[in-house]
Amino acid sequence: MPKLRNKSFTFRAISGIWIFVILTGIGIISGAFSVFGAETAEIVDYRTFFGFDPRTTVWIIAELHLMFGAFVLGVPMFAVTVEYVGVLTKEERYDRLAKDFTRLLSASFALTAALGGLLTFALFTLYPKVMNFMTGIFSESFYIYAFFFFGETFVLYFYYYSWDRLKNRKGIHIS
């Protein structure tokens, strides 16, 4: 069986994903600047974020957070599916591919959390009255959200760091 160049493929795949994310972010930001020139109506006096319109600021941060959040939620499902295919076909390359994708999660998860913190900061500073009202309504669900957030973090790190330890027990690792 010929030896595959997995490191080169992995590097290209990771580079391609990051280039896509960066170009998407640049596209969103450049689209936001075209929105600035299109506004002719009188703007209500809101706080600004480094001179930017608060709605556009929240929209850009929320969109980036949403894209990385979808990535962080989608990659584990893809990795488990690929790992399962590797168990069924007994081919090592699927296991390596799943582990390579899982390797992306720690950096992506940290960036998603940072964008979520930035979004929270932007919302509470730019729209304090609205967020005060929303906090009063959703305050009890914040605890549930925190539980799921830390639970997901624990499960993702456990999944990644137990990979080699449970190499011979893939059924347990996948479940």
How is the main sheet built? Answer: none
Structural class: mainly alpha
Name the helix and strand elements from N-terminus to C-terminus, one letter apiece: HHHHHH
Euclidean distance between termini CA atoms? 31 Å
How many strands appear in the DSSP assignment? Answer: 0
GO biological process, one term: aerobic electron transport chain
Pfam families: Cyt_bd_oxida_I
Transmembrane segments: 12-38, 58-84, 104-127, 142-160
Main location: membrane
Task: Describe what this molecule looks like in 3D.
The protein is mainly alpha-helical. The protein has one domain. Helix content is 81%, strand content 0%. It contains 6 helices and no strands. α4 runs antiparallel to α5. The longest helix is centred in the middle third of the chain and has 36 residues. The mean pLDDT is 80.
